[in-house]
Write a structure and sequence with these properties.
16 helices, YeeE/YedE family protein, 417 residues, mainly alpha, two-stranded antiparallel ribbon, membrane, single chain, cell inner membrane
Length: 417
């Protein structure tokens, strides 16, 4: 049984009308996703601190939201740079506006669920950040997805993204090994917070941030009009309350949900949502199994030493990542959309290179589209804004590289991260 969306202008075209139909729910897969999630929740509750099962649930909701809205960072940047469509970037600005509104009191007053210290992602500005964010921008356009996009695309069965993830992990591990050179041997400024480094305080930093988001949104509208950018294609969805579980969500709804979930993550574990530090951990543990002395790396000294020695299930970022994959898997199955896709030589090669660039770039830039861009800007860190600008520059260059791998550079807008 399929569910149709409400009629839209394009629905008079029978081809488009068929594309707006939902597939039947894949009930067996939904059951498998729920069962695995339940078992993982019980295991975490029995073996880890109480924060870990809560974070797994937050990860589920993050993955569910990302998939249902096809909320993209890679595609948002690509749409803007290729055809001038800024709808998704405006959704980013709404997400960030809600996030700074929630983060400001949490960071100012140290609000947390378990009494732990609370800190945002405020990182140095230097050569490491510039190079890392730029090559991450290239990598996400070749790899077919950003950090969050890689996870939720895997949950949706996009086969080539498993290749991207493998080399994402490799790149993150090598980047962790090289990070001391980039941060200690090359020029860098101290971390700059709009709230604590400028005298503005969190109230003033919030106001400046809101003005910046509004300015960026206004600029995207001007660009759209000037370039006569095409609108984003409609996605299949259900009607009424069923839309929560089946079909696409409006971008603005997902933007608000992601901001709220990130704030809840901050209060649960003391830091915002992140993804790629777990990739460096997984890769380092695998390298250690093959005799590599990863414990001697500068990256794994100090507080990080305990992370390397502990179970991956004690790592909150790992738990969040598992939750995102499972949440996206359940969402894709609910929409009848889980299906393994075909791998070609072109997208395989692009995924290898893209994964390596994203993994390495994320370590150099102190995070990815989530940890550096979303989490950094939400934490009032200057490095988050610089990350976004340099990732856009990397995206522009990647538009000329994608055809070399048989990847399209759309003249109209796609909807996949």
């Amino acid at each position: 049984m399929t569910t149709r969306v409400q009629p839209v202008n394009e629905a008079r075209d029978p081809v488009i009308r068929r594309s707006l139909e939902l597939n039947a729910p894949q009930k067996v897969l939904i059951g498998v996703g729920i069962a695995v999630s339940f078992v993982l929740f019980l295991y975490l509750a029995a073996t880890q601190s109480m924060a870990q099962p809560i974070l797994m649930l937050l990860g589920l909701l993050l993955g569910f939201t990302l998939f249902h809205a096809r909320f993209g960072f890679t595609s948002a940047f690509r749409r803007m740079m290729s055809v001038g469509n800024g709808q998704a970037l405006r959704a980013h600005m709404l997400m960030l506006a809600v996030a700074v509104t929630l983060f400001a009191p949490i960071l100012a007053f140290g609000i947390s669920f378990f009494g732990q210290d609370v800190a945002g992602y405020v990182s140095p500005v230097g050569i490491s950040l510039i190079v890392g964010s730029f090559i991450f921008g290239i990598g996400m356009q070749l790899g077919g997805g950003c950090a969050s996009g890689t996870l939720y695309a895997i949950g949706g069965g996009r086969t080539v993204m498993f290749i991207t993830l493998i080399f994402f992990i490799v790149g993150a591990t090598v980047g962790a090994h090289h990070l001391p050179f980039w941060t200690e041997e090359l020029p860098s400024f101290e971390p700059i917070s709009l709230a604590t480094s400028t005298g503005l305080g969190y109230g003033g930093a919030w106001l400046v941030s809101i003005v910046l988001f509004g300015l960026i949104a206004w600029i995207t509208v001007i660009i759209e009009k000037k370039r006569k950018a095409p609108k984003m294609a409609p996605l299949p969805t259900a009607q009424g309350w069923k839309r929560i579980f089946r079909g696409s969500w409006p971008l603005f709804a997902a933007a608000i949900a992601l901001a709220v979930l990130n704030a809840l993550t901050l209060m649960t574990r003391g830091t915002p949502w992140g993804i790629t530090s777990a990739f460096a951990l997984w890769g380092s543990k695998i390298a250690g199994m093959f005799g590599v002395d990863v414990a001697s790396w500068g990256y794994w000294q100090g507080a990080n030493a305990a992370v390397l020695e502990s179970s991956i299930f004690a790592d909150s970022t790992t738990v969040l990542n598992f939750g995102v994959i499972l949440g996206a898997f359940i969402a894709s199955a609910a929409g009848g959309l889980f299906k393994f896709s075909r791998i070609t030589l072109g997208n395989f090669s692009a995924s290898v290179i893209g994964g390596l660039l994203m993994g390495y770039g994320a370590r150099l830039a102190f995070g990815c589209n989530i940890g550096a861009y979303f989490g950094g800007i939400a934490s009032f860190s200057l490095h988050g804004y610089i990350w976004g600008i340099l990732a856009l520059a990397g995206t522009f260059l990647a538009l000329y590289l994608r055809p070399l791998f048989g990847l399209s550079v759309p003249k109209s807008n796609d909807s996949v991260c």
